[in-house]
Design a protein that fits this description.
heterodimer; A: alpha+beta; FAD/NAD(P)-binding domain; 50 strands; elongated; B: mainly beta; four-stranded antiparallel beta sheet; two-stranded antiparallel sheet; binds zinc ion
């Protein structure tokens, strides 16, 4: 059924190696060197998708990254499928499967196409305007919009491919391997600069590579012959690295660039396995040379979007490079000389040219003369007013332009064709330059934005800098590079260059038709389906800023970021609003230049490598003993140790009871530990904690509360005075790194006069905590020669000791309210000490408990957890911890803030205890607390911060913050839940052992 | 992504550093003698200039030293870096 449109003499396509692939389920054939787009065109397939809004049939339009229509889904494996890829950039490989996006149920029969017939009803911002109200209908709208929007399918399973990141440092980075990039790279590398040349194609040379035309010659050779020799000469340059299939994604400040290298995307399916698919290069270049070339503009006229309407330069590449005829009766429509190059190429390959329609009055540059000599018919001063054909163009309607170009005159000529090439001039690819923060200048003569001022050591050369003629490109590039690199390379000084000169220029942003504007469909943004009429409507509705018009009409907001549409949108806005284009400014191009895969972005940082996992020295013991783990920051902490089929609640009830009845053992290694030394260590602690430290005896421990300068509780922990000028501070598990940073900040910037040194020793020591009435007996078995009497070793003190000749520090401190010890020992011995304690505790049924039980036990005692019962808005006074604020100290961090007008308010939220009327009812953490139940809206007085069922008290207990809570003791309040209201009473925060008898039990 | 010249380590990638807000705000020596307004001025008020700004930076994943930087926030140009306690090399 499908025709073969391949000519036989393409030099770049290996016609001996046939490749089979599938498109929309149908098996087709192409050759090695093809892109998916060229292979489809060779099979006479233009129709590849439906448009976003009107679901109009759309075909391949371009041959590079600017392709707006041929957006396909590649692969149908649940873990490998990739949406939004451009058929023009996919190298064909054996086994490729691709399908059209944005058409449902199929590209040939599309339900959404009904939108096309209703299109007068779908003006700019139709979706915004229509689907806005009523708000609760949005759920319904969303279903239909998503269904028909056709933005591709996400994979449903994890990506099996391997991705990689790598750093690269170089003297000179050249982006783009066209003729100017090659000249630049060669000059830099010859000068022994460490040079990297990257290009997104699989082969260097750009468009010159297939330019074989009498009008473009260098030293009597065709320009392509000359360039091939230049490319060959690059091989001998030792300081040059060339990376093909590498696309620059982002250009950040300080010459930091990201480039994606495709390593296996072009390989046959069975060759891809176990190889790195893509590598993201993180490049830091001393100098950057941008040689990204330019892209052809479309022309904006009525029905300019039918399959078969393509950029003229793309048609040229398909015939000259891929050997593919995009049609057999081709018409060309242009406002400049480039379409004539296409005409000559097609003619030389035996394709019929119907005519060239040129909006200019008449011009006689050498290339136009050559076309005329070949007998190609030209309609001067003419425009296309309409095109016909539904799934493929079949004819065009031509009329003469009026003298001022705003209207059409005379008779309409109908011309049959199966392909129409359009050329609206050239747009320099300045995307990377603007990404890097560079400012653009506007050149009125040919309506282009060109690189202007930049803060970085970089330069743009070739057509991305506005040099479009061959002789200009070579001469200007050579000069500019010499200056930029401060070298004197004269390789390009005496070349004999023949280049056709474009003499006449004419530009009409929106071409007139014989029909009134409202009845035409001049598409601007093909991917997002907005027309010139939409932009004009937006202006009539009062939008003036380009950024607003863009968002309102969605012009330039598709996955191609409006690569083809932006210039015309700007032109039409400028013209309609009567301002100069240069004054209008442009929209901002954001990285990436073309979409990046998530795989390339994350590289190897997936799964267990996504973040660092910190494990305590006893981690393996916890696993062997079936602990469930909880993540606390990067730490894996034992959460609870279920026995048999216990759920968390059952395990925690058992563990909590055991810890108070006999003995419990907890892995406390994750607590932050900071070693503090120096002659001013005591003074330093005085300044960072709210309480006084100077008088703490050597060998004693003290609890400290640390505030932010705003007076709010930041962290807490016990600090031990090991010797005169040596302290060991502990912090919360999650706060360790931040506390160290904060302390370092004060030391280095506010108090550099203090002689204090801070060292994080969190990972250096493992901590075994044993608690309960039998903890003393257990410890005495482990360290028999240590005097554990209350007199010798009282609560809140520390002893140095030896366990099997290994030095350790024992702190008698308690976070549970029980008699308890913390053994700190070098990490490598911590597991064996843990096992020793466990062994010694067996006769007392020592029970390992996790963080959940720890939280419950401390809640029974009313001890806070910074970060759970506090949230950065609680002062020590709010926590009813006035006792810890030193009245004597002149200053400490946050002190002044404790009596700001706001912090001394009496009706602040304050920490209280809560008991439920029904002792079995457990409150939900985060639940709101109110004073009344039958009023709406009702004031929220506060919320529950910690809540547990206490097995030791046999009732539910909770901590909460409540407005004015201090004065409300005994007050009945309510916790309204979804299905019921829970009655509660405000109590003291200490629920168990108010007299602290158990500490010395 | 800046390239920051740490006064202690030399040029390193921005990802090694963390920013610490406006520089040269001295913690008052006698906070207790300040009015609420004066204390609030120290505690909360920051300039956030479009243009040349004096900033504190920390080489958090390097030498952990704090230092000062003069940066133009409109184009991210770093005019100077200098150690804590030193006078700014530019006005
Ligand atoms: Zn450093």
């Amino acid at each position: 059924m499908s025709k073969n449109l391949r000519i036989t003499n393409s030099k770049f396509i290996d016609q001996t190696s046939r490749i089979s692939f599938k498109f929309d389920g149908k098996t087709l054939y192409g050759f090695k060197g093809d892109t998916l787009a060229s292979a489809l065109l060779a099979n006479d397939i233009h129709l590849v998708g439906r448009s976003f809004k009107y679901h109009r049939p759309r075909g391949i339009m371009a041959c590079g990254p600017e392709e707006p229509n041929a957006i396909v889904q590649v692969g149908n494996d649940a873990s490998m499928t990739e949406p939004n890829t451009r058929a023009t950039e996919i190298e064909l490989y054996e086994g490729l499967e691709a399908s059209s996006q944005n058409c449902w149920p199929s590209v040939n029969f599309d339900i959404g196409a009904v939108n096309n017939f209703f299109s007068p009803l779908i003006p700019a911002a139709f979706y915004y305007k229509t689907f806005m109200w009523p708000a609760n209908f949005w759920k319904l709208y969303e279903y239909f919009i998503r269904r028909s929007a056709g933005l591709g399918k996400s994979p449903t399973e994890p990506d099996k491919d391997i991705y990689d990141h790598k750093y690269l440092h170089c003297d000179v980075l050249v982006v783009g391997g066209g003729i100017s990039g090659i000249i630049a790279a060669k000059t830099a590398a010859k000068n022994n600069s460490n040079t990297v040349l990257i290009d997104d194609k699989n082969i260097l040379g750009g468009t010159t590579l297939f330019q074989e035309n009498e009008c473009f010659k260098i030293n009597n050779s065709y320009s392509n012959e000359w360039l091939k020799k230049e490319i060959k000469s690059l091989k001998s340059l030792k300081s040059l690295t060339i990376k093909t299939r590498t696309s620059l994604a982002a250009y950040h400040s300080y010459n930091y660039l990201l480039a994606r290298e495709n390593l296996t995307d072009h390989l046959d399916i069975n060759e891809k396995k176990d190889k790195i698919r893509q590598r993201l290069w993180k490049i830091r270049a001393k100098k950057v040379i941008i040689a990204t070339g330019s892209m052809e503009r479309p022309l904006i006229f009525n029905n300019n979007d039918r399959p078969g309407i393509m950029l003229s330069s793309s048609i040229k590449k398909y015939i000259d490079y891929y050997g593919v005829k995009c049609g057999q009766k081709v018409s060309l429509f242009t406002n400049n000389d480039s379409a004539y190059e296409t005409a000559i190429s097609l003619n030389n390959s035996g394709v019929n040219i119907n005519s060239v329609i040129d909006i200019r009055d008449k011009t006689n540059s050498s290339i136009v003369k050559q076309a005329e000599k070949l007998g190609i018919k030209i309609h001067w001063k003419s425009t296309i007013v309409n095109t016909n054909g539904y799934k493929k163009i079949n004819s065009i309607e031509i009329m003469q332009l009026s003298d001022d170009g705003t209207a059409v005159v005379g008779k309409k000529i109908k011309e049959e064709c199966d392909c129409l090439g359009i050329s609206g001039g050239w747009t320099p690819r300045v995307h990377l330059f603007t990404q890097s923060g560079g400012k653009l200048n506007f050149r009125d003569e040919d309506n282009v934005f060109l690189p202007g001022k930049s803060e970085l050591d970089q330069i743009s050369i070739g057509s991305c800098n506005g040099d479009f003629e061959l002789d200009e490109i070579i001469k200007n590039t050579a000069n500019t590079i010499n200056k930029f690199l401060k070298v004197n390379n004269n390789d390009y000084e005496n070349l004999k260059i023949i280049s056709s000169k474009e003499i006449d220029k004419k530009n009409i942003w929106l071409l007139p038709s014989d029909k009134p504007l409202g009845k035409t469909k001049p598409f601007l943004d093909f991917q997002n389906d907005s027309t010139a009429n939409d932009v004009k409507l937006a202006l009539r509705e009062g939008f003036k800023s380009i950024e607003h018009v863009k968002r309102y009409t969605t012009t330039g907001m598709a996955t191609d970021q409006g690569k083809l549409s932006n210039m015309h949108a700007l032109g039409i806005i400028a013209e309609t609003a009567g301002v100069k284009m240069g004054e209008l400014g442009t929209t901002t191009f954001r990285p990436p230049y073309t979409p990046l895969t998530f795989g390339a972005i994350v590289g190897r940082n997936v799964g267990e490598f996504f973040d660092i996992t910190r494990k305590t020295p006893m981690h393996d013991w916890h696993i062997e003993n079936k602990a469930e783990f909880e993540n606390v920051g990067q730490w894996k902490r034992a959460w609870y140790y279920p026995i048999e089929n216990e759920n968390m609640h059952e395990a925690v009830q058992r563990e909590s009871k055991a810890a108070r009845d006999s003995a419990g053992i907890l892995d406390a290694s994750t607590l932050g530990k900071i070693d503090i030394q120096g002659s001013d260590a005591s003074e330093f602690l005085n300044r960072v904690y709210t309480n006084a430290w100077s008088k703490l005896e050597i060998g004693k421990c003290r609890y400290g509360l640390m505030l932010n300068e705003d007076g709010m509780v930041y962290d807490d922990g016990v600090t031990t005075r090991l010797s005169e000028n040596h302290y060991l501070m502990t912090t919360t598990t999650g706060g360790a790194a931040n506390v160290l940073s904060k302390l370092e900040d004060y030391l280095q910037t506010e108090w550099p006069e203090l002689d204090v040194y801070l060292t994080s020793v969190t990972d250096h020591y493992g901590t075994v905590s044993i608690c309960g009435p039998n903890s003393k007996k257990i410890l005495s078995k482990v360290i028999p020669d240590l005097d554990l009497s209350d007199k010798e070793f009282p609560h809140m003190s520390f002893k140095n000791a030896l366990i099997d000749n290994i030095r350790c520090r024992i702190m008698r401190i308690s976070f549970t309210g029980e008699h308890s010890y913390e053994i700190n020992i070098q990490s490598s011995y911590a597991k064996s000490v843990w096992e020793k304690c466990f062994e010694a505790g067996k006769e007392f049924k020592i029970t390992p408990y996790g963080t959940e039980t720890m939280h419950l036990l401390r809640a029974e005692k009313g001890f806070i957890i910074a970060g759970q019962d506090t949230d950065g808005t609680m002062t020590p006074v709010d926590l009813q911890m006035d006792w810890i604020i030193s009245k004597k100290k002149y200053d400490f961090i946050g002190k002044r803030s404790l009596y700001r007008s706001d912090t001394i308010r009496e009706d602040r939220k304050q920490l209280v205890g809560l008991l439920t009327d029904d002792p079995k009812e457990i409150l939900e953490e985060g639940a709101q607390i109110v004073a009344e139940t039958n009023k709406q809206p009702i004031e929220m007085l506060g919320h529950v911060t910690s809540s547990y069922f206490s097995p030791n008290l046999n009732k539910s207990i909770a901590l909460a913050v409540v407005k004015n809570g201090k004065k409300l003791k005994g007050q009945k309040l309510f916790v309204p839940m979804k299905n019921k209201t829970i009655n509660v009473t405000i109590t003291d925060t200490v629920f168990l052992d108010k007299e602290n008898k158990r500490l010395n039990a | 992504m800046f390239l920051i010249n740490c006064p202690y380590c030399g040029e390193r990638d921005q990802s090694e550093f963390s920013a610490g807000g406006e520089a040269h705000i001295l913690r008052p020596k006698q906070p207790t003698e300040l009015s609420d307004d004066q204390w609030a001025e120290y505690l909360f008020m920051r300039k956030n200039i479009k243009g040349v700004q004096f900033e504190r930076w920390n080489h958090a994943h390097g030498c952990r030293k704090w230092f000062n930087m003069i940066r133009d926030t409109s184009n991210d140009k770093i005019h100077a870096v200098y150690k804590m306690g030193e006078k700014p090399p530019l006005k």
